[in-house]
Design brief:
The protein is an alpha/beta fold and 456 residues long. It has helices at residues 42-47, 49-60, 85-99, 112-122, 139-145, 149-154, 163-175, 180-193, 196-206, 238-251, 263-272, 276-281, 301-308, 310-330, 350-364, 395-406, 416-421; strands spanning 10-13, 19-25, 30-33, 64-68, 104-109, 127-133, 222-227, 256-260, 291-298, 334-338, 342-347, 371-378, 381-384, 390-393, 412-415, 429-435, 444-449. Helix content is 41%, strand content 21%. The strands form 3 sheets. An 8-stranded mixed beta sheet has the order 1-2-4-3-5-6-7-8, with helices on both faces.
């Protein structure tokens, strides 16, 4: 493969600390193309010609395609061990927040449809259009669509010893033997993108995922595709293959079902129909665009350790971590890093960032933990740290950290920039005046959020 075809890999950080590799292709309304059956996404672009062709079709149709590798695969963090549906949704949320997307289309292929369906039911206000390409909702669907998978499942105990053999069998089941070169190409991509041990854990988790009960709750415009031109799929097998696909389409209210060999054209027409995606999505925010930075810090953590001892104090701080991460997840925040007794997070929306801060303070109100929170908005610089994890730098970040240091336990302090961004959205503030901040010549105007009195 030529160097010009290599995608530019960037990283998003999930709320549970996993680095997710993603790449953006083309221009236009954004379409997030979820990883498929084995968690791989952008990795396939570099290693499988068929996958490359699919993305080229979608970008030629006028779409901006975002592909990413799920946790444990490809260029993403390979140390991850949680492959549950909830964990997969954290991967998707991290990419969405990293790009600052407000609304977008989702494309779920094979097992990736499960995450797409679940996300669309949880966050319908963000999903402009849902595309399900040869989807399955459960392991039972998968086994009906790919009967040979039962053989591979039986081979799981041999995976680490016979990974090449098993990968070739997986490729043959998916693509058939009609194009042996493509099957070999796919098998090699699988071996380079995922270890045998991770594949086993991922398949064991996949056996437990079933989103059938969510289908009737899908409320966004949905296109369900049976792909007639999929390599290795004989025309006579399309009807049998489409059985579970058709059941999924019938279960989703007002879903449109098509059988096609023109993936890019059909998806492009659906996503761009009536101008909905164009109007709703807008351009993706690239790193360096406006973001709201949030810092938390547990007040008196050193004294807490002296009073309770290391083990008990760690238990208390672990509770702070759990509550904060739940709040970040609920409000679309991206955890950038932890600092022992505090967090740094970023948001594409100042309103959601402030709602998250209020939720954290309310969770700790009246308890032993008192948290200081500071927020600022600006255009941070994104860089990978030495461990390959994404980090943010620059004036916007430093000011947010300095403001957090000015707060007392139980307080939320924000810069005037944040206050202006959320004007008219129900928040109440006290003007705390100008504060000199270390390292800055001019003082910064700081406002206290009156979160106890309501306001989101």
């Amino acid at each position: 493969m030529s160097a010009t075809m290599e995608p530019r890999i960037q990283y998003a950080r999930t709320s549970d600390g996993v680095s997710i590799a993603y790449a953006v292709f083309g221009e236009g309304p954004p379409l997030i193309y979820l990883p498929g059956a084995y968690g791989l996404g952008v990795h396939y672009y570099s290693h499988v010609s068929y996958s490359r062709g699919g993305i080229d079709q979608l970008t030629a149709a006028g779409l901006q395609v975002v592909r990413y590798d799920g946790r444990g695969t490809g260029s993403s963090d390979r140390t991850a061990v949680d492959f549950s549906l909830e964990a997969q949704l954290l991967d998707l949320e991290a990419v969405v927040e990293r790009l600052g997307l407000e609304r977008f289309a989702l494309l779920g292929h094979f097992g990736g449809a499960q995450s797409a369906i679940a996300y669309a039911t949880r966050r319908p206000e963000r999903v402009a259009r849902l595309v399900l390409r040869d989807p399955w909702a459960s392991a039972a669907d998968m086994y009906q669509m790919l009967p040979g998978t039962r053989i591979v499942t039986a081979m799981r105990p041999l995976a680490e010893a016979q990974w090449e053999l098993i990968s070739l069998n997986i490729a043959a089941i998916g693509f058939g033997f009609a194009d042996s070169e493509l099957a070999k190409e796919y098998a090699a991509a699988l071996r380079s993108g995922i270890t045998a041990a991770t594949w086993v854990r991922m398949q064991e988790a996949s056996d437990k995922i079933d989103v059938t009960d969510l289908l009737e709750a899908v409320s966004v415009p949905t296109l369900v595709i049976v792909e007639a031109a999929f390599p290795g799929r004989a025309p006579a097998a399309v009807a049998e293959w489409g059985g579970p696909v058709k059941r999924i389409a019938a279960s989703i209210p007002d879903a449109r079902l098509v059988t096609t060999d023109e993936l890019g054209v059909v998806v492009g027409e659906f996503v761009l129909a009536d101008g909905q995606a164009t109007a709703a999505a807008g351009p993706a925010k690239a790193p360096g665009s406006l973001q709201t930075i949030l810092f938390t810090d547990v007040e008196g953590s050193t004294a807490l350790t002296d009073r309770l001892g290391d083990a008990a104090a760690r238990d208390v701080l672990r509770e702070h971590e759990r509550i904060t991460r739940e709040a970040l997840k609920a409000h679309g925040g991206s955890e950038v890093k932890t600092m022992g007794d505090g967090f740094m997070a970023s948001f594409g929306s100042a309103k959601r960032a402030l709602e998250c801060a209020v939720a954290v303070q309310r969770a700790f109100a009246g308890g032993d933990i008192r948290v200081r929170i500071g927020l600022n908005a600006g255009e941070p610089i994104a860089e990978d740290d030495p461990g390959g994890r994404n980090d943010l730098f620059g004036t916007a970040v430093i000011v947010a950290a300095r403001i957090a240091a000015q707060a007392q336990g139980g307080e939320i302090l924000v810069s005037d920039v944040v206050r202006q961004l959320v004007a008219g959205k129900g928040f109440l503030f006290n003007d705390r005046g100008d504060h000199p901040l270390k390292g800055f010549e001019d003082p910064v105007r700081v406002f206290e959020v009156r979160w106890q009195e309501g306001g989101s």
